[in-house]
User: Which sequence fits this backbone?
């Protein structure tokens, strides 16, 4: 006698059993696919980041700092250069606000280092010449990325211990006053007009117009063809209340040169827009 | 009547050895022709071997049916274990002599010398692996006299291989091996068997998936296939009587095939 109901139950049990391996295999497959889909993008991202770091010969981390904050912080920037180039160096800019910079994926460094171009010659006794010869391209890159903002710090460059493949350069920004003293000391040693112009600009920015006038005057005495020096000189005179003297000075300067900046400033002083 | 429809089909697959139910398949047909050709040769013995359910008995039966009109053929489906009984059976069936009270091998040999046939009498022994070693030795000696030709069938097992080697290695001039059917052969086997019994509609209900399912379960073994299909049609018959809405009359369901396999023990569930 056939017991079909029992047979159907047994058949159902058999079918469920027979599908278990397929179900397990399917679940396993899905889990593997999910795991791969989660893992692969991360590994690819990591790989591309690594490749990007290796291939970019410029500064990969740029720190953007406000002038007020710069005075109190030490920034360390790491520069990695490909192995096939001879100058494989890393520059570290240490910062007190380490937590903040780590949170930023891309940090834009905008130190106003453009003056380094002007004082490069004057720096030579202070910084290792061989190192500067190697560093100059990187430094130019750094400058090209930076924006011209009024910066009130000086930079001391230290070359770290040179490794076989990767060396590092630490740029440490000291506080303004000690830096300015350092520059004045160096100016007194070598009478470099770039340094005196730098000092004049700094004093002018700080509102010390008398000293900016003095250093601009010294710059003009050393080199009469520095446009910026004449402008700072004239601006300082205006700030000191010597409008007429400033106008006459600029006019006499414009007789020998065709400086557009000087003529613009002259018009502003005469028009009263610059006080 | 749908009910008889399935019952008729069920009866087709009853496990009986009947030459009328013999289904000619390409490979089997070739083997059968080889067997018939071997019979005509002056061979002392022919060995037909294969796994159980590969059609040895059916082929032997078919051969018997085909040859019995033209020559003296004796077939023993069940083994005659006792030697005297075996010799008496041979004397009766081949020479038409009622045995004496006692018949030993020497007396049988003397008897066989008194008779001459145009064609050597043929004795077909099914399930020869069940014969005792002593009796197999006597069969060997009888075949050596060339007064009787034997065709024996053996299950192919390790033990039976030994029997074949020890007793017949030098005497068997022809040995034929039968195999299980492949899927294509099994389809022809099932459909031909049904059509022979006028179950055309049922034969058309089998598709390749059904045959593949059956082949997976029975591995192409004819006896197992018969058993499975017999069980399957029993289930169909039950559904037909009790829950006719549950069955599809246009095709065979693999579910029913698997249920039949569970019922017959081919699938352990």
Assistant:
């Amino acid at each position: 006698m056939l017991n079909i109901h029992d047979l159907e139950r047994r058949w159902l049990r058999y079918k469920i059993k027979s599908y278990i391996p397929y179900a397990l295999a399917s679940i396993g497959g899905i889990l593997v696919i999910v795991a791969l889909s989660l893992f692969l993008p991360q590994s690819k991202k990591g790989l591309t980041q690594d490749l990007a770091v290796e291939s970019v010969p410029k500064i990969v981390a740029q720190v953007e700092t406000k002038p007020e904050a710069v005075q109190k912080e030490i920034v360390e920037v790491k520069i990695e250069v490909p192995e096939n180039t001879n100058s494989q160096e890393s520059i570290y800019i240490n910062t007190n606000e380490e937590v903040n910079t780590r949170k930023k994926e891309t940090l834009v460094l905008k130190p106003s280092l453009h003056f380094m171009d002007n004082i490069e010659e004057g720096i030579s006794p202070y910084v290792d010449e061989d190192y500067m010869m190697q560093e100059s391209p990187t430094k130019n890159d750094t400058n090209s990325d930076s924006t011209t903002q009024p910066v009130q710090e000086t930079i001391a460059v230290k070359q770290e211990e040179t490794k076989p493949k990767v060396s590092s350069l630490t740029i440490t920004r000291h506080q303004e006053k000690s830096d300015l003293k350092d520059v004045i000391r160096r100016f007194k040693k070598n009478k470099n007009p770039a340094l005196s112009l730098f000092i004049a600009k700094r004093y002018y920015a700080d509102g010390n117009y008398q000293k900016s006038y003095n250093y601009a005057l010294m710059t003009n005495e050393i080199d009469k063809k520095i446009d910026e020096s004449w402008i700072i000189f004239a601006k300082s005179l205006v700030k000191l209340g010597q409008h007429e003297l400033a106008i006459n000075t600029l006019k006499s300067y414009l007789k020998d040169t065709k400086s557009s900046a000087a003529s613009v400033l002259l018009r502003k002083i005469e028009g009263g827009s610059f006080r | 009547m749908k009910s008889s429809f399935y019952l008729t089909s069920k009866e087709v697959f009853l496990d009986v050895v009947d030459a009328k139910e013999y289904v000619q398949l390409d490979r089997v047909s070739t083997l059968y022709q080889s067997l018939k050709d071997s019979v005509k040769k002056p061979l002392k013995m022919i060995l037909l071997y294969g796994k159980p359910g590969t059609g040895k008995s059916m082929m032997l039966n078919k051969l018997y049916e085909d040859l019995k009109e033209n020559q003296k053929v004796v077939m023993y489906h069940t083994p005659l274990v006792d030697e005297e009984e075996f010799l008496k059976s041979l004397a009766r069936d081949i020479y038409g002599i009622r045995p004496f009270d006692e018949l030993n091998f020497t007396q049988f040999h003397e008897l066989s010398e008194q008779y001459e046939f145009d064609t050597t009498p043929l004795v077909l022994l099914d399930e020869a692996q069940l014969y005792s070693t002593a009796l197999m030795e006597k069969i060997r000696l009888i075949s050596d006299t060339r007064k009787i030709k034997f065709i024996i069938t053996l299950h192919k097992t390790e033990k039976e291989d030994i029997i074949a080697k020890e007793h017949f290695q030098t005497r068997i001039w022809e040995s034929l091996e039968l195999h299980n059917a492949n899927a294509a052969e099994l389809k022809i086997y099932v459909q031909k068997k049904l059509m022979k019994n006028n179950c055309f509609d049922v034969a058309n209900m089998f598709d390749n998936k059904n045959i593949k399912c059956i082949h997976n379960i029975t591995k192409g073994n004819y006896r197992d296939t018969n058993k499975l299909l017999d069980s399957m049609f029993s289930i169909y018959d039950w559904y037909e009587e009790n829950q006719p809405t549950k069955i599809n009359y246009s095709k065979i369901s693999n579910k029913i095939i698997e249920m039949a396999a569970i019922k017959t023990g081919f699938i352990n569930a």
Q: What stands out?
A: Strands of chain B lie at 45-50, 73-76, 122-125, 149-155, 172-178.
